[in-house]
Specification:
Number of helices: 13
Strand order of the largest sheet: 1-2-3-7-4-6-5
Number of strands: 12
Distance between the termini: 54 Å
Radius of gyration: 22 Å
Structural class: alpha+beta
Helix content: 25-40%
Order of helices and strands: EEEEHHEEHHHHHEHEEHEEHHHHE
CATH superfamily of the largest domain: Metalloenzyme, LuxS/M16 peptidase-like
CATH class of the largest domain: Alpha Beta
Shape: globular
Number of domains: 2
CATH topology of the largest domain: Cytochrome Bc1 Complex, Chain A, domain 1
Length: about 400
């Protein structure tokens, strides 16, 4: 077993994290002293970006099947086991990975292996039947219809942001709400997708609860081995920028700019990411017309964290450009930006469920959120100015929403 430990003060709480191996997969363990719940997350580096032509939506469909159909060694549905003890379960597909998470009341230490095993089963091949397939297709249709009918922006810009940076099919297509391939999906087709993606990739497991990392590592010590995998990064080729009209139809016209902002060669990746996080928080404080974000879903979600997106309604014209300088900025605004960036991280680390998901993503993509948090506290004006210079020299793609909602379910 190989372990490493880090500690950081988080308000009055001391968080501890260790990293090791379970089988041939990464295992991360976090402790929240006094926690009354156990959070377990499995991250598999398979998402919509791994879909090929004819497979749009297969990653999402496979996630549904694994979440609902996997059984334990006695034949009981894993989902039923979780619900039976008062737990909550969730699964989510992203472009570059899929997450399976659950949180339950903290069990006895000797039962940890059982619950970790149940979590890992969702990275195993689900028993796909025509009945399962038809049921999950219907659920996904309902999810898409709800998003289209209840949200003014219906997933803009995150669904189409990557298409502004790449002509690669995996990054360009809409694997979240394009239902044509999903409707035609067969049991054989889904099994082929699984064999090409899930079966060939290792996963990461993260466990968070009240126990010390050493206790958890000891409890699963018999399942340790050698990790011969490498960190998975963003797949596909970024050959943009491309000015595009997206596939998402919004109730009001929306515009966005998309940039891939490179890191700095002179400081660490976590320090670079920390400066970017604070800079984006600052930009949102000094600009009201445009909303800025790092990554498709936020700055801690994986390899897309270097993507800078600005979005807003187009009634007032294209979105405002990212601020280019700090001249005249009140120091209190920078302090506020640092506080906002820290608050976002702390919210993630405050519960067993979200903390475990963050640890599993970090392990999969070679990141360290606790180290980034320490760097956020140290961000200075020169750090932000360096990031602003990199933004200024990064090509900008323009993305606009579709406006025809004919046929969108009410």
């Amino acid at each position: 077993m190989t372990t490493s430990q880090t500690m950081t003060p988080l308000a009055a709480t001391e968080l501890s994290v260790s990293h090791g191996i379970i089988g041939r997969n990464r295992l991360s363990v976090g402790r929240i002293p006094g926690a009354r719940t156990l959070g377990v997350t499995v991250v598999v580096p398979v998402g919509t970006a791994h879909e090929q032509p004819g497979e749009a939506g297969f990653a999402h469909l496979t996630e549904h099947l694994a979440h609902q159909s996997i059984r334990d060694q006695l034949g009981h549905l894993v989902e039923d086991r979780i619900l039976a003890v008062g737990g909550l379960s969730n699964a989510q597909t992203y472009p570059f990975h899929t997450e399976f998470s659950f949180v339950i009341p903290a069990p006895a230490r000797q039962d940890l292996v059982h619950w970790i095993d149940l979590a890992r089963r969702r990275a195993a091949s689900p028993p796909v039947t025509p009945v399962d397939l038809d049921r999950e297709k219907a659920v996904i249709r309902q999810e898409v219809a709800l998003r289209m009918s209840s949200s003014p922006v219906a997933g803009f810009p995150w669904i189409d942001a990557l298409s502004a940076l790449s002509s690669d099919y995996g990054l360009r297509h809409n694997g979240f709400s394009d239902l044509a391939d999903l409707e035609a999906a067969s049991v054989h087709g889904v099994e082929q997708f699984w064999d090409r993606t899930y079966r060939r990739r290792h996963h990461s497991v993260a466990v968070v609860g009240p126990w010390t990392p050493e206790d958890v590592m000891d409890a699963v010590g018999g399942a340790t081995g050698t990790d011969d995998t490498e960190n998975d990064a963003m797949v596909g080729v970024l050959d943009g920028p491309h000015d595009v009209q997206g596939s998402v139809a919004t109730l009001i016209p929306m515009h966005a700019t998309v940039q891939c902002v490179g890191g700095s060669s002179s400081i660490s990746r976590e320090a670079t990411d920390a400066a970017a996080m604070v800079a984006v928080e600052w930009a949102n404080l000094v600009q009201s017309r445009t909303h800025w974000q790092l990554g498709l879903f936020g700055p801690t979600m994986g390899p897309d964290r270097n993507i800078l997106i600005g979005s807003g309604p187009s009634a007032s014209g294209p979105v405002a450009p990212f601020p280019r300088e700090l001249a005249g900025t009140d120091r209190r605004l920078l302090d506020q930006a640092v506080a906002s960036a820290l608050g976002g991280i702390d919210k993630t680390l405050s519960s067993a469920a979200t903390f475990s998901a963050q640890l599993a993503r970090d392990a999969m993509f070679g990141l360290d959120t606790l180290e980034r948090r320490r760097n956020v506290e140290l961000v200075s004006a020169p750090d932000i100015e360096a990031y602003l210079r990199r933004v200024a020299h990064s090509p900008v793609a323009a993305l606009r929403s579709a406006v025809d909602r004919a046929g969108v379910p009410a």
